[in-house]
Amino acid sequence: MRTLIALLALVTQCFTMATTTEQLYRRLDALIANQDSITLAKQASIDAVRVAMTGGQLSPEAQYALNDRMYEQYIAFKFDSALHYATLNVELARTMNNARYNNAALLKLAYIQSVAGLFEVADNTLDHIDTRSLDDSLRAEYYNERAKLYLFRQEYTQGTPYEAANADSAQHYRALTIGLAAPGSYRRTFADAVYHCENGDYDTAIKMLQAELKKTIADSTGSDEQALLSVIDRRRYAVITSTLAYFYRRKGDERQCEHYLLLAAISDVAGAVRENTSLRSLSMMLLDKGDPDRAFNYLNTSINDAKFFGTRLRHIQSAQLVPIIIKAYNDNRTASHQRRTMLLILVGATAFILILALAYALYQNRKRRAASRQVSRINATLSETVEQLKDVNSRLAQTSNIKDEYLTRLLMLCSTLIDRNDHRRKDNLKLAHDRRYEQLVANLKSNSDTAESVTMFHDNFDEAFLNIYPDFVATVNSLLKPDAHVETDGKGLSTELRILALIRLGISDNATIAGILRASLSTVYTYRSRLKARALTPETFEAVIKQERGAYAPAEVPATPPR
Fold first, then answer.
1. Residues 190, 181: contact at Cβ < 8 Å?
2. For the chain, what is the domain count?
3. pLDDT in tens, 25-67
4. What 3-state DSSP class applies to 501?
């Protein structure tokens, strides 16, 4: 029973966390979509401090404080501006001859140089600080900046033989920080937690930072939800949550790692923090989870943040992930496209089968009804059907003879034309070999062969047509007025009779007739108009010609080849 209760509790916890995680993702997506407005609000707060800096003659101490405020505004927003105000305070502290101010300004200058990846410059800046003149608080800060410098070096040399040495140096300075920082202070707790984590004591490290996170929330607004909107502690909140995500990753708890990375990313985006690692880490986690679209969006935002902040280190780190995420993004799109294609094929095939089945059912139903009606009509229509079959057989026989006639004529005409063209090609080829180009050009320009071919076509058409329809001319004259009969020489058809012959064969389009007879469109139109004018009934003249199609039995087909 206890095991069942524990299992149910675990399932409930996992479901609740999954729901919360998706809500956090949606909130982060909304903040990224609204990033321009957040940036404008951040710029407005910076402008408010800048207005105070131009509000009249300021004492060196007041100017130093305002420069420090501008540095804090820019420290995670824009590198070059933060560097500018840190440098101004170093120069101002030296002018004031104030050692404490100078050391504090140098520590902040060293931090922003470390963030930018200017490790040698940051190291040189820290070397200018006389640690013997520092009190315990500033000396703890000094060791803390040394630890951060080696932490950034460790990130930069990740995967190289130098990574371990930088990690050891960072641990060394964390130990010095712990020994000097005030008990219970944020600096000591944070350094101590990271120190335990790097030594493998993950549970102690997590416990310490979770307590510090609760303290940060309580000191700011009293709720986790509102802590993400607190101007005072947002940056600390993001640092703690992103570090907790790192602790859980080292421990192997990916679910908690994702949760705290989301909190850190939300805090970073809401606070216009452009120097961040949370979005980049989330993009890699989402890639492993199979969500390349969101991973690509977060990485793209991280790259834009790195460009905006203006440091080499973060830009290089983000850029290194681009090929990996783009490949995963493209692979996912390809797989998704393939899945959609297969689904569409499956749906289409299913729909096609259903349509066929429906059509077959309708067909069978209609067939049954038609069969029942047809039975009652069979006896009445049987004799009529027999007569129709006789007529159809007669027409089929006539049509077969017509086909044979035209097919024989067509084959023989094509063979003759092929022989003529081949002969002409050989003659032209011989002229080309003999370099008799003038004669070759003259032959190519001459249209005598075309004219002969047209004449041959007309002769064969006339002969074939009159063999099939020997009474065609008499039929045409019977439809014309007595004084308008068409006269022929008995050897072939005239142009106007050929036009009517094509109409008899079912070709009535002027352009088609003109193309077949090698005549102009206006010539065909003129002949047809004249023939209608000479007809006894112009309105039905061509219709009667078409109806006469197939009314005559063809004559015997000659076996002689075309001329």
1. no
2. 2
3. 999 999 999 989 999 998 998 888 888 888 668 889 999 999 9
4. helix
